[in-house]
Amino acid sequence: MDKKLLLALMLIFSxxxxxxxxxxxxxxxNVAEFRxxxxxxxxxxxxxxxxxTQEKNLTVLDEKIVSKGIFRFKKQKKVRMEYTSPFKYLFxxxxxxxxxxxxxxxxxxxARSNKLFTVINNxxxxxxxxxxxxxKDFTSTVYKNDKNYLLVLxxxxxxxxxxxxxxxxxxxxxxxxxxxxxxIEPSGDNTVILFQNKExxxxxxxxxxxxx
Amino acid sequence: MxxxxxxxMLTVSWGCKQPAYLQLxxxxxxxxxxxxxxxxxxxxxYNGHINxxxxxxxxxxxxxxxxxxxxxxxxxxEMGIKFFDFEFTPAGFKVIYxxxxxxxxxxxxxxxxxxxxxxxxxxxxxxxxxxxxxxxxYMGTSSGKAETYYTTDSSCTHIKRIEDVYKGKLKIxxxxxxxxxxxxxxVYIDHKNYEFNIxxxxxxx
Lengths: 212, 205
Fold this sequence. Notes:
heterodimer, A: alpha+beta, outer membrane lipoprotein receptor (LolB), chain A, 12-stranded antiparallel sheet
């Protein structure tokens, strides 16, 4: 009986072990080296221009909401995320200020006052600026395969755990640029943002980050 | 024409009085008109804007019929953060998920009421009273001190207005445009007793 129990526990434990590591990835053991690589890549990156496709998956309802837009980043801490289809929506971070323009209204507020609206973009900023592992809002684990690094970020605070189980960020192994973000909700629903047609260090006018 | 104008003006400005069309002769409700109170659609996605006491919020509101008389309604921000997931069935209203900040009795009750009215929840066809104007048909239901009036065009192609009345006072006024995919293309919900309005516009996917 004890042997059967032990075997069952071992099976359960091994199953947990298997699921704790994302499929197709191995854990990065030398995190200091990865951190160094991120810093070096960040030092070389002054701006990022790309298109993006966002896919929200409502698993139980078997529904996908797909939207597209353009993404801009410029040092220091300037982000423009502009949804162009199938709706218009603009989100700008410039330092500690945020502007949201939807089809009805423009709203500006301090980034500190509303973490929920800035959390995703702050994760992107942290990754580009090489500080993703230092964000105290998340615990992080790093994995890799031959194409990507994968940062698995788990929210520490209850206010973020309510929205996300984890946020998985895929970084291109060649230049450590963000290629994909997968936000997984406690319900199992998720939102994936894929960054395509990336241009590193392209010229982006400051006017694109104007706060209203 | 003059009568119609008068009825329209009174309808918009009634406040404490009964709507003018209740003075019209009562008729039998026709099947096409009654059918409008039975929304049938598969999935409809709206871009939604909420203005409440000086605050503004926008997002995506998804309606999906999951079975006969069962509808799921999910609201998320444009960036994908889910705020609520409700289920409407003949058995009642169920909160599948709601963020803590919205998960308050008073807020849930208002959202249940607004969305429920839009989905024509809890309507008993036999209780509907019908009034026929020159260019509009008015259907009314009541339960205790609460009354709801649905206004359609004369050929019953779509519901143009929903008026929610309590103790004779207009509480919520809905303006609806023509149907697209079984649901109104756009919706404007105006709460008369405090600054709270919702506007929805369908997104074609």
